């Protein structure tokens, strides 16, 4: 027999004890908050109990004899006033913002809306269409984590479902699930590539927007969060949230870190006309940024309808508690923050001293994990690449764009290309950060795949149902002579070679390299550069051609092994002339130091540089030739041996070549030469 009494205000959410369950929720302007308990199927509301009000806006109740697994939700009663942003509606069952699990599926219906049409109070009850929060007992994550240093990191960004959905040798029940990512076939694939960290697109529970479902599409990427604590249930084989933790443990056992892409900038509740699912019905004006007048109008710095109000102390606490949960309970090693500028923006604009950054940096748990920012959003002053504080890393789109432009053959790219290859000191050195603060990438989930970058000059997003108006129009891409698919062997060979050229640039640059899943498989999205709603073969990786010569598995693996043997890429600081150990030398086609005229020669499309470690007496020379013409260069004297050794080239070669004097550079080719390098055989 259940009994009800006043509970504790902390911790928020549901907490299991030996005698029952404590519930606490923040709803400072509600007149009444009700705890609703459901049967095991989640269909019948068996108890509706008024909670106790505490100072500070928290409501609590302790339910004696209630046990783990109980299903529940909240209802709030209070003022309903659109102009004031007060949306209390007792007819809406709300998910607990701190729920660690839920039961049941979300179904779109008009019942979820607070008002239909705008201004008309909606009395329809939505409980039948809502998942029910589930009481769970959590335990700390155990086991040893890899703690891979940034200088040894190689990131593989991937989608949980799309990465394994078409894998030919996996158990069908595991395909597209967390469990599939730690199947031996895929783990071995990652380890062969040299991957040290897998970065998962959103794994927080999410729903598809109604404008997509009405068109028969789904939010495939997952940037539409329903819960900040619950793993996306569709990625679980048996619906158990522990499957995520099991996956993390197996990755750790294979010395691979897990970074998750998190979306704390907006939620699935959308704008004022969006559904009421959780936050909107508890403290709308606190969880979301709104105009000062009228307060019903959301500030939309995300382009998704609402913006989470990180300035509010309780909202900040929610985000911090969620982050700690994913580290301490789920075991993750770091986070990539979507539209991260929002998290550092106050009413006065972005600040690297925002309370969010201060909270992270003083936190004994979160200050020790990997923190990666997507340093832009669509709000005012939204582009903040280079402005984040240490120890944050940042996606470097300037790197991506100039590498693409260089290999496309654009003129005048050398000065910027050299800065990006050197680690972007112009972006990071001003606040005592180094080259390892730059996450270098050629492609990501957002935009073209690497194969499409060399296959399409124009986006082809018709399948998204927006008249090809969505997605970026400028992708710095080219098609090697024919738009889209082809069987022409010369075009295919050219496309392959240009991808290898770009990968040489990526791996032989200072910074932390990242590739998008499918890069190694020559994956095409058919020219779609905004495949966020393509939960189908457009996005799913095709593993059937892994044995094809057109895959990039071996070039990537070879380049990463080579990089791991070069100490110059481990140096955490920018190299200047006075550096006693490391040096960088930029050379022209005559193997002389680059002059001002060389740097600013619009027709110069060849960049050569030598990175040397004087302590270990080895060096690497990288030659990037985007010129279409072939020519011969005389090599500079190698610093630590009698000759240069060619260890990698985008030109076909079966073995290392000793190059004592010169090298014939074929058009549009990349070369890696070493001097006195001994391979590390301990890997």
UniProtKB/TrEMBL annotation:
SUPFAM superfamilies according to UniProt: (Trans)glycosidases, E set domains, Glycosyl hydrolase domain
SMART domains reported for this sequence: Aamy
Q: Which InterPro entries match?
A: GH, GH13_cat_dom, GlgX_Isoamylase_N_E_set, Glyco_hydro_13_N, Glyco_hydro_b, Glycogen_debranch_GlgX, Ig-like_fold, Ig_E-set
Superkingdom assignment? Bacteria
Q: Where is the Glycosyl hydrolase family 13 catalytic domain?
A: 165-563
Indicate yes or no for the key word Ligase. Answer: no
Pfam families to which the protein is assigned, alphabetical: Alpha-amylase, CBM_48
Q: Identify the keywords attached in UniProt to this record, alphabetized.
A: Glycosidase, Hydrolase
NCBIfam families, A to Z: glgX_debranch
Family the entry assigns: Belongs to the glycosyl hydrolase 13 family.
Q: What is this protein called?
A: Glycogen debranching protein GlgX
Q: What is the originating organism of this protein?
A: Pseudoalteromonas obscura
Highest classification ranks of the organism: Bacteria, Pseudomonadati, Pseudomonadota, Gammaproteobacteria, Alteromonadales
